[in-house]
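Handout, page 2. Input:
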Amino acid sequence: MGDVTSQERHRERVPGGGSGPLRGAGPAAPDVPDGDADGASGRPGPDDACRERGRPQDVWPGVFALARAFDAHGEARGMTREQQWTLQVLKLSEETGEAAQAVIGVQGTNPRKGYSHAWEDVHAEVADVVITGLVALARMRPDDAADFLGRHLERQAARFPAAGRPGAEPSPADGGQAPPSGARRRP
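Output:
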């Protein structure tokens, strides 16, 4: 594709050049050096960005707008809801593949393409995965997608001690016991 970078191709396929309610709303987080005296990374996290803006960014209006547009497109083509959902989940797999391709490009491990991506490209592709997943959930659960996601996130976070949730199994890194060799654990 000539001298067009992956980031430029990404901007071309996203209306508005990648800005809007799902991307880059609000000021950028300040640069914070890696590491501090107590060993913490010192990097700003999502909570820091929300505090800077004074509120969490609500992505759901944009997610539901996309879901409605895709639903209308599928209905105009005579597709059942289940067919539309199936294609949306397949789209999620496609976006995940693009994120993986960007990581390969950052590492330069494809001898034919070399160093074809930057970490910014990976960030954009991961954001696309998240957006596509949220849209899939909104299409499948239009009445309670946000609540369902919140409940599911709580259950998943409770499984990890580092998330500070009571009742979580400690991981080997936190002093817990590793499962016996060959034992399968529920993902």
